[in-house]
Each structure stands twice: as structure tokens, then as C-alpha cells.
């Protein structure tokens, strides 16, 4: 689709305020991190000091979130990280980051579909409805092997439950932003109420002895001690992912210069408070070594004899994962919208429904791709592929802010990151973006080491999938995106945003 066609075709209309952006941010952050990862981090790495790990991870994401907030205020357009990189570094780096974002969002959707399907199958079992494993487990299987990570195999099942969850999110979004926003708001309210209820009820039943010792002695490697706290922080860093989705809605926000920073930073603050509160109560109810299960909160309420509350927790988890699935799909379609508008992706990704104000073709196409991943691949493979892309994305966003601040003057009325910076040879090195680059790589270093360890022990599947995806992306850029993007200035997306706003 050409630039001229984009300007004359229906475009996305500004319809969101700061409250809607807060809901979008909380919806996309508050999900598997609190319902699953809290127990794993406490049992395997940090013990009761998992609360410190949450604070460290939240601070790291705050640094990155501040960079997103200023860039979204300066460049209130669809596309988020892709747009920032395209505008500052040019076509090839912009495409590379956009292609990584495409992978990140798609894999996240598949993972969320798997999580949603797992909780749904568990909840149905509570009511005597048993879903066959042949339609609720993935084709590729994994077996945990001590010292070598996961061993992969191929089974005889296809996870249709998870695939249906992904497709449902795409259909809801295709119906229009007002309808999807209503559904998302309801889901967010349900999961927040469930978590707040758990904290308020559980705080009266905690056993303070479970918090002793608060920092367990190190047992070697990253098992407990301050080493374990740091490792848990690197794991929980990914529990805060999702705040960047707020910036993808900048072009659909009535006052993006004010509201997008509120949405990003406010959603991070709300989720950090909930994470620390839930972790405090959880480790007070159950000895931390016993929390390494897929449903630690349900385990906690089961231990103190609340079967009804356990069922409500599973419903809350479904609401949580469902809202993240919707918010993730929203952000994915907006990134593809910006890439399509720049000529990097086919025109179907920028088709706006004239009545529903939705990217309906993009929503349904992306949902189908996510459903395919959820049906065939297990969570462990998907997680390996997403983590490294996240680090590179965050680092490039921080670098984009450094470049933009160095080249363009300050603008009144725009959000600015605090703590200042220093000028060296005409380049502004801000304290916040430099720290954001450092922590992004530090938080993902253990993931990289684990991937290398898998390769050393002969498990090449995650690395091969990632390299194949990158090779496909380079081919698409050379033979499709580059010829169509030639002649368009880096600000092509900015011209498009004029019609959006």
C-alpha cells in the first residue's frame, strides 16, 4: 500500500484517554507473571526475598519505561519501538527491530494462549469436565533433563484449546476498539479484584515463620542468597513486559503528550505494588520451597482450606491471561500497521474497517499465526525465542532516545526523562537511557547463557527456529520491504500520523 493510498483510506481515530491507557497497560502486564512466575522465582531462586527481586525488576523496567514515555510524547504515532528506531536510525535498523517485534508479539500471544488453555482445562476439571490431552497439549513435547535443560520430541496431539483462545482474541479486536476495550476493562477489573481479595484475606492467615530466613543462605550457583535474588530479578523482569504496548496506542490517544506517559508509568507502578503485595502474602502462607508449581496462588488458598477461593483464583487467572492476550494482540496489530504504512509489510496489515475502526484483516491474520504457534509448540521453546529479542528491543529504544535528544531541540509540553545526562562530542548520554541499556542486557544474560547451554548439549531447536526466522526476515526485507520503502523519508510514519490524529 502506497503512502498516497494510506492518506485517502480510512484511518484509526483518536478515542483513548489516560484511563483507557492505564487499563491497557495493566491488562498487558498483569498476567502470567503474578499467577505463575512468582512461585517459580521464590521456590527456585530467592525464597521470601522474592519481594526484593520484584523491586529490582520493577526498577529496571521503570528505566526503560521512562525512555518509552519520552519517545511516545515526542513521536505520538502507531508502531512504538519500530517507529522510534525507523525515525532515528533509518530503514534497515527499523525493519530489523520491527521484525523482532513481530516475533515477540506473536510468540507472546502463543504463550498466553497456552497459559489460558491450561487454566481453562484445570477449571473445567474442577467441575467434572475433562478435556482430552489430544486437544490440549502441543505437538512438540519437552522433557526436563537435569543439567542439560529441555529435551525435545514430537507427540501426537495438537493444542486446539490454546489455538481457540488466540483466535478468539483476534475476533474480539476485529469487532472494534470500543467493544474490545469494554471486554478488556471487565477482565482487568476481575483479575485485580481477585488479587486484591487474595492479599486482604491471606494477610490474616500468614505464618511469619515462613519468612525466616528472609534471605536464605546460598546453596550454590543462583540458588538462594543474593545471587538467587539477582537471578529471580532477571526472571521477573519479563513479568513486567507489556507496558510498551501503551505506546503503540499513541496515534489513537486524544492527548498523547500527557496521557501516554501516564499510562506507561502508572501501569508499571500499579503492577509493581500488586506484585510485591501478592509475593509477600504468598510466601507467608506457604513455605517457599513448595511454591514451584504452575498455580502457586491456587496452592496457597488450597492449603488454608478455601476451595471456593481456589476456583475464583483460577477464574481470575483466566481473566488475567485473557486481558493480556487482548492487549498483546492490540499492540501487535499497531506495530504491523506502522510497518505496512512504511511499505515493509503487505497492505492488508493497514486496512482499517470504515465502521468498526479496527484493523480487522491484521487482527485475524495475526491471530491465526499465534494460534498455529500455540497449537504446535510448548511454552519452553517459545520463551527461549522471545527473551533475547526483548533485550535488543529495549536497548535500541534507549539508544533511539539518546540519538533523538542529540539531534533535536527540547520541545515544550513534552515528557522528559529525569536525572539529566552529559554531552560528549555533540552526543547526549542521558543517565536513564544509558542505565536502561545496561540493565536490559544484564537481565537477559542468564537467558542467553541457558540458550548456549542447550546448544552445548545438542538441543538446537530454539536456536534453529530463531536463526530461521531472522533469515526469513532478511529475505523479506531485501526482496519486498526495501524496494517499496525506497523513496519514503524516515518521517513517512509521521505524515501518516497526521491523518490518524
Automatic annotation (TrEMBL):
Coiled-coil regions, chain positions: none
Transmembrane segments: 21-43, 49-71, 92-116, 154-175, 182-206, 229-250, 262-286, 306-330, 359-379, 385-402, 422-448, 460-480
Predominant location category: membrane
Taxonomic superkingdom: Bacteria
GO cellular component, one term: membrane
UniProt keyword terms in alphabetical order: Membrane, Transmembrane, Transmembrane helix, Transport
Keyword Ribosomal protein belongs to the record: no
InterPro entries: AA/rel_permease1 (IPR002293)
Cellular compartment(s): Membrane
Entry keyword annotation includes Membrane: yes
Molecular function (Gene Ontology), one example: amino acid transmembrane transporter activity
Membrane topology: Multi-pass membrane protein
Protein name from the UniProt record: Amino acid transporter
The organism's taxonomic lineage, starting at the top: Bacteria, Pseudomonadati, Pseudomonadota, Gammaproteobacteria, Steroidobacterales
Amino acid at each position: 500500500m502506497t503512502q498516497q493510498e494510506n492518506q485517502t483510506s480510512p484511518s484509526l481515530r483518536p478515542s483513548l484517554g489516560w484511563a483507557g491507557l492505564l487499563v491497557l497497560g495493566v491488562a498487558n502486564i498483569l498476567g502470567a507473571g503474578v499467577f505463575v512466575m512468582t512461585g517459580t522465582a521464590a521456590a527456585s531462586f530467592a525464597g521470601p526475598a522474592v519481594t526484593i527481586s520484584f523491586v529490582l525488576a520493577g526498577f529496571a523496567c521503570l528505566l526503560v519505561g521512562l525512555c518509552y514515555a519520552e519517545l511516545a510524547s515526542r513521536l505520538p504515532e502507531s508502531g512504538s519501538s519500530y517507529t522510534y528506531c525507523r525515525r532515528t536510525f533509518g530503514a534497515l535498523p527499523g525493519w530489523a527491530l520491527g521484525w523482532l517485534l513481530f516475533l515477540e508479539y506473536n510468540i507472546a500471544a502463543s504463550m498466553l494462549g497456552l497459559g489460558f488453555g491450561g487454566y481453562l482445562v484445570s477449571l473445567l476439571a474442577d467441575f467434572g469436565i475433562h478435556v482430552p490431552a489430544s486437544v490440549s497439549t502441543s505437538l512438540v513435547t519437552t522433557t526436563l533433563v537435569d543439567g542439560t535443560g529441555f529435551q525435545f520430541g514430537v507427540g501426537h496431539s495438537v493444542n486446539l484449546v490454546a489455538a481457540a483462545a488466540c483466535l478468539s482474541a483476534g475476533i474480539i479486536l476485529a469487532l472494534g476498539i470500543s467493544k474490545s476495550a469494554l471486554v478488556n476493562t471487565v477482565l482487568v477489573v476481575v483479575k485485580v479484584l481477585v488479587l486484591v481479595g487474595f492479599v486482604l484475606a491471606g494477610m490474616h492467615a500468614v505464618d511469619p515463620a515462613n519468612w525466616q530466613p528472609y534471605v536464605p543462605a546460598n546453596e550454590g550457583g543462583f540458588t538462594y542468597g543474593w545471587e538467587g535474588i539477582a537471578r529471580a530479578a532477571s526472571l521477573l523482569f519479563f513479568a513486567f513486559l507489556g507496558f510498551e504496548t501503551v505506546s503503540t496506542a499513541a496515534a489513537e490517544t486524544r492527548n498523547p503528550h500527557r496521557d501516554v506517559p501516564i499510562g506507561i508509568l502508572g501501569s508499571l507502578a500499579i503492577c509493581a505494588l500488586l506484585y510485591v503485595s501478592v509475593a509477600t502474602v504468598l510466601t507467608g502462607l506457604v513455605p517457599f520451597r513448595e511454591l514451584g508449581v504452575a498455580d502457586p496462588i491456587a496452592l496457597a488458598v488450597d492449603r488454608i482450606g478455601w476451595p471456593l477461593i481456589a476456583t475464583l483464583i483460577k477464574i481470575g487467572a483466566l481473566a488475567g491471561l485473557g486481558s493480556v492476550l487482548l492487549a498483546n494482540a492490540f499492540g501487535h496489530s499497531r506495530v504491523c500497521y506502522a510497518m505496512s504504512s512504511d511499505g515493509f509489510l503487505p497492505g492488508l496489515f493497514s486496512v482499517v474497517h470504515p465502521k468498526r475502526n479496527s484493523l480487522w484483516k491484521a487482527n485475524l491474520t495475526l491471530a491465526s499465526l499465534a494460534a498455529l504457534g500455540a497449537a504446535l509448540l510448548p511454552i519452553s521453546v517459545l520463551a527461549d525465542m522471545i527473551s533475547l529479542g526483548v533485550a535488543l528491543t529495549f536497548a535500541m529504544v534507549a539508544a533511539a532516545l539518546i540519538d533523538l535528544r542529540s539531534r533535536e531541540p527540547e520541545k515544550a509540553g513534552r515528557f522528559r526523562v529525569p536525572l539529566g545526562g552529559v554531552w560528549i562530542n555533540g552526543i547526549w548520554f542521558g543517565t536513564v537511557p544509558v542505565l536502561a541499556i545496561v540493565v536490559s542486557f544484564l537481565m537477559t544474560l542468564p537467558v542467553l547463557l541457558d540458550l548456549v547451554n542447550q546448544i552445548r548439549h545438542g538441543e538446537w531447536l530454539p536456536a534453529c527456529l530463531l536463526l530461521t526466522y531472522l533469515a526469513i526476515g532478511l529475505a523479506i526485507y531485501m526482496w519486498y520491504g526495501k524496494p517499496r520503502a525506497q523513496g519514503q523519508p524516515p518521517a513517512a510514519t509521521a505524515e501518516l500520523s497526521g491523518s490518524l490524529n
